[in-house]
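Appendix B. One record, verbatim.
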Amino acid sequence: MDLIFFGMQGAGKGTLGKSAAERYGMRIFETGGALRALAQEDSELGHKVKSIIEAGHLVPNEVVMEIVEDFMSKLPKNTAVLFDGIPRKVEQAQSLNELLKKHNRTYKAVLIDIKKETAFKRLATRRVCKSCKNVYPTTYTNSSCECNGELVTRADDNPEAIKTRLEAFEKETIPTINIYKDNLIKIDGEPTIKEVEILAFKALDGIMPPPSNS
């Protein structure tokens, strides 16, 4: 069973996704990471991706789907995938669903649901490690990351940029989520990440493989 994770920026989607992937033995597909990895490969697809990135263009949907298919072709047998940050738009959801159907993969969509006000507050107060890129909420009071890296505020975590990103989520991603409304698990993302994790695992343990001993 694959999982398609959705969440407004600041919902903790990436953090929860990592925990879920570890718990259920899944591989995470994150578009940005997959693009960067492929651009380093000496392959036809790798060269295509590298040329698009170097030209400063957005990667078109058909190429993103090629990347997803390439990722799945390299998976160990019977390995489930957690899709993080894809699909973002209706067209991409339709393409992804067709691809999953082609490969006979079953899936559930998961929405980490928070209010817009909560998202704005979290984004405006969070810090990111310059070294490992881990994200820390305002409740994390240490001056450095667990890896000892420096914690900084992202350049795009300013009020105007946050407003633009949240508006894009409402305009593009909410209609995308609606495609999955009959196959959607909704998790309350308002509590602390630990509480959200408990709620998520309570909902997912019944449909995913037995949890690992952790």
